[in-house]
Design brief:
Oligomer: single chain
Distance between the termini: 58 Å
Order of helices and strands: HHEHEHEH
Structural class: mainly alpha
Strand order of the largest sheet: 1-2-3
Largest sheet: 3 strands, parallel
Helix content: 25-40%
Strand content: 5-15%
CATH superfamily of the domain at 49-116: NAD(P)-binding Rossmann-like Domain
């Protein structure tokens, strides 16, 4: 089977042998870079979230939003809910600190970008 593949490859492409399908592209040599650069290059920046829970942001109705606050609150920048706009996560849920709830999606994104810079 391998011989047939090599013969077909030679007939089609005019080369002696097909490249092995297991050959991987070469990766950068990280051993020569300083440790801080290696870590910075290999670690993607953490994502920030504006959580959409329009009309359902509460302790019993937004289970995913509640879990996000509990497990990675530093990545939550805003909540979007027109009914609870102007409050904080602490006001609505009883936990979550000062993460604001906004009623305008575009303004929430703009404020989140401004706060990250």
């Amino acid at each position: 089977m391998v011989l047939i593949r090599h013969i077909l490859y030679r007939e089609i492409y005019g080369e002696a042998e097909a490249p092995s399908p297991r050959v991987r592209p070469t990766e950068p040599d990280w051993s020569r870079a300083p440790a801080s650069r290696r870590l910075r290059e290999m670690t993607p920046p953490p994502a920030s979230f504006l959580i959409i829970a329009d009309g359902d942001f509460g302790p019993l109705t937004s289970k995913t939003a509640n879990s996000c606050i509990r497990y990675f609150p530093e990545r939550i920048v805003r909540f979007f809910d027109r009914k609870q706009a102007g409050k904080t996560a602490q006001d609505v849920l009883g936990f979550g600190g000062k993460i604001p709830v906004v009623g305008d999606f575009e303004r929430g994104i703009a404020q989140a970008k401004r706060d990250r810079v």
